Structure prediction request, 236 residues.
Amino acid sequence: MKISLILLTFLSFWIVRDLFRPEFFQSHDALYHVVRLDQFHQALTSGQFPVRWAPTLLNGLGYPLFIVNYHLPYYLAEAFHLIGLSLFDSIKAVLVFSLVASALTSFWLFYSWTKTPLAATLGSVFYILAPYRLANIFERGALGEAVAYIFVPLVFLGLDQLKHHRVKLLILALSGLVLSHTVVLLSFAPVFLIYTLIFIKPKLKPLVISGLITFSLTAFQMFPVFFERHYLKFDA
Prediction:
């Protein structure tokens, strides 16, 4: 099992080896994330928590960007930036971290299902080599979606633990998914529901508890999306 984890870690780093080059890579959105991280850093270090306002966008007027933008990927990038990485390298570091971490979380899931290291390793390889995953990183530069796929396997693991009336992992996984990219959560919601109904069949109480605590933990991001979004003009 340890050998499998080491091999998956090395494979993940090998897949994203081009991100270790000194120059920044071209993609659809990655450069925008650098700008947003700069704004996030300015806001956070000036005392905003949670971050809501991008202070110098729109020619210095500022803009409430983070009312409608996901948060967790920028907190991760901010951690890398605070330990000395540049804004550009911090974005690349989160993309690298997302692939490595998702390899490990998917191995955990597949091993819990199969109890076989080889099967779990192969499942993880397919998970991290899926063309859509690689396109998210190298072509789209989709920071939030890349981070969200760390948590998808953890949601399944959390659902499995409902059989034993344990909800902590499910709450953590759902919260991470919401704070990383809510569209990914919505995309997988039918799959989660079908899996729960067919394989888990939990009692209602742990599901309600998980939902309420998850909503409480993510309310700082979700409340503005529901109640303040109509004040913004961003898709007209």
